[in-house]
Write a structure and sequence with these properties.
192 residues, alpha/beta, two-stranded antiparallel sheet, 5 helices
Length: 192
């Protein structure tokens, strides 16, 4: 799979995103309700993330995880545990948790899906501006237990939009003393 990784700036020690989510989006008109419509072309990874997350396509987990593992091996941040970002939308099966489990299996790293938990409900953040995101995320997460104490955390998320969620989580992990280092890895990045 062809990827275009790039650095992410934030509250972490180092951070990267594997690729853009969308490679092209063209306005094609308005629907019957006056809503703008677009013809969207996703990157290969963006399409896999979309199919898994919104269409339940389980066959996407393997290729996504293999691409992430290949990148992490070359990046080599020295992480010794994977922490996926807690989901903002309840689902019977959490796609990011599936990816994290497979990445952990391939890299032979433990995956901790319970130490960082939501403390209050937040809406899905994909259509919320940055200032509002920061406000909604204030106090939205907590760390339970000592499982992450002294660990070098690979903080994993599927879609990076503004960085507010990952930055909030990285600050929590570092400021609480739960993690000795935090490395952010987003699978795809939304267009700005």
């Amino acid at each position: 799979m062809k990827l275009s990784p790039s650095k992410l700036q934030g509250a972490w020690d180092d951070g990267c995103v594997l690729d853009r989510h969308v490679s092209k989006s063209e306005f094609i008109g308005y629907d019957e309700h006056g809503n703008p419509q677009f013809e969207t072309t996703r990157t290969e990874l963006g399409e896999l993330v979309y199919r898994l997350k919104y269409q339940g396509d389980q066959s996407a987990v393997g290729p996504i995880a293999r691409a992430a593992c290949e990148f992490v091996r070359s990046w080599n941040p020295g992480a010794n545990i994977i922490v996926p970002a807690p989901p903002s939308k309840p689902r019977a099966v959490q796609p990011l948790f599936q990816i994290a489990d497979e990445v952990g299996r391939l890299l032979k790293l433990p995956v901790d899906k319970t130490s960082v938990r939501k403390t209050k409900a937040t809406p899905e953040l994909k259509n919320v501006d940055y200032a509002k995101r920061v406000d909604l995320l204030t106090g939205a997460h907590a760390i339970g237990g000592d499982a992450l104490r002294g660990r070098r955390v690979l903080l994993l998320d599927d879609l990076y939009q503004s960085g507010s969620t990952m930055s909030s989580l990285a600050r929590l992990l570092k400021n609480s003393g739960a993690a000795s280092a935090v490395f952010a890895l987003a699978l795809t990045k939304a267009r700005n």
